[in-house]
Fold:
Amino acid sequence: MKHIIWHKIVYAFLWLGFTAYYKLFHNYHFRIYRPKSKTYLVLSNHNSDGDQFMVGIPLVRHMYYVASEHLFRQGLASKLIRFLAAPIVRKKGNEGKSTIKDITYALDHGANVCLFVEGNRSFNGETGWISSSNGALVKNSGAGLITFRLDGGYLRTPRWAAYRRKGPEYGHVIHEYTKEDLASMTEDEVTEAIKRDVYTNAYTFQKEHPEKYTGKNLAEHLETLLFVCPKCHGIDTMTSIGDRFYCSCGLDLKINEYCFFESSGKGPVPFETVYDWDKWQRSYLKENIGSIKKEYTDKPFFSHERQMLSRINIMKDTDLMCEGKMELFSDRLEITGPDCKNVFTLNDIAAISVTKMMTLFFSTKDGGYYEIKSESIRTGVGYVMMYRYLTGKDYI
Structure:
């Protein structure tokens, strides 16, 4: 591959610095692993923005990483990333099929590749949906497979949180499958092995290995994930401040340093963990979407000011289209400003996803690709979840 020698030199230099940094400042626990395969694909779960470093540290040898395309629209920083590491690009809010060709090309030319197999960081602490296409990718790659699992990172840096915590992180090589091993497995068997190996639940792990994750304002911005109240069933009625998480109906909780909910002295605790609450709100919305749609016939599910809609030019920049209020109705998404109004029917949206805490990406069936940023704290998960249930899809 072009410039691979340069990338290997950079990688080796950065490996030394990041190994020292993560051991010292992240309390990162790992063991060095020497792969048997000459060329391999590493598949891992995804918990934090630093996962690429924590996967790379125990494996030592150079890898190319699959990264979201938004990293390539950051001006000088993006140019530096491309120059030093040349990540493989993957579009958000899109099926990402074009990525497979680039991964295969790298493997065919003797490079190793790391892919965060969920395609997105976990919001609730559980490993997310894994596409069956990963089995086909591995089988057709001609390379070995290493499965890797990260623990502790979600509790240290919850995707929904305003602030980081202090606490341990762990990285484990779970299994290496050589080309010979993979030759005797079907695509479905490979997919199931991947799902089994990289699966984790942060709260189950915490119960088994309890550690304090200390920090300030432990509940702040939790409403970006948990947007349905279990007491009154209100949508987008939750508020966070400091360690407290509460609803206008009177529900009032707080999060402790072990990452579990406890009462703030104003009633019972409906759920022990963020994961439990999130699973409940998914089930509640899915089972009741028909009656909820009737209740919201003449009003939006969500209405948020200070939103910025842009059209995305892949690998280049964005063109700002509208600044104003965003509203999600049962059949459409609207962004309206003083001099603009953009309406996207839900049936015309091909896919939608969220990056970081709440930035939305979506593609339309006519080939459009868009980004919605927010200058106010609001849910991103809620828009994705409601879109999927309203259009007859499951939330994954």
Notes: The chain has a mean pLDDT of 93. Residues 204 and 246 are 24 Å apart (CA to CA). Residues 4-25 form the longest helix (22 residues). The chain is about 30% helix and 25% strand.
